[in-house]
What we know:
Helix content is 44%, strand content 20%. By secondary structure, it is α/β, with parallel strands linked by helices. It has a single domain (2-168, 211-245), classed as Rossmann fold. Helix 8 (175-195) runs antiparallel to helix 9.
Amino acid sequence: xxxxxxxxxxxxxxxxxxxxxxxxxxxxxxxxxxxxxxxxxxxxxxxxxxxxxxxxxxxxxxxxxxxxxxxxxxxxxxxxxxxxxxxxxxxxxxxxxxxxxxxxxxxxxxxxxxxxxxxxxxxxxxxxxxxxxxxxxxxxxxxxxxxxxxxxxxxxxxxxxxxxxxxxxxxxxxxxxxxxxxxxxxxxxxxxxxxxxxxxxxxxxxxxxxxxxxxxxxxxxxxxxxxxxxxxxxxxxxxxxxxxxx
Length: 246
């Protein structure tokens, strides 16, 4: 799709590495400080966004849930509120998965959530396996967006739902101006200082700017076969919750 491939944004912009390889490297590099920075830079609002997304997921009463690009497992853990039979989280970053497993052990819930290394664009699950799939701030990191979304749909059972939480670009004053300044100047500066990675938190606003949000993203969901697609902006459009059914 032309809109999807218009601009490829990579964390380190190396000539001989793919976006997928660089994203995995980036998250391995920042995994030690990821949770701290994530909640600090979002001012804790990311937890509210996840709760809103889980509330939507709850209307489908999912028993088997897959959290794609799970990171350290925050969305997978939040899904436990729905009392599912199983929750699995997959991520391409070994560092993030290890930090997530440590978090599960600290909370004594390692028997309720399974975290494993996995490629979001080549999911190692059978067709029609899950009732619900969640992704938080992960789809913009896919190397091939349509392929990743298609894989998610493949492993969804008929009637299942995908809930996608992703950053977007606010359109109205003063949120647009405030978030624009914050994401361009504050996030990269603090992120670099704390994570010691020069590129990781500069990549965040760049990847958000390049992402096909809103109607453009809904068109992609429709193209790969999702039904009843819709979206809900949160916090004035800083993020958007997308919903697609199989």
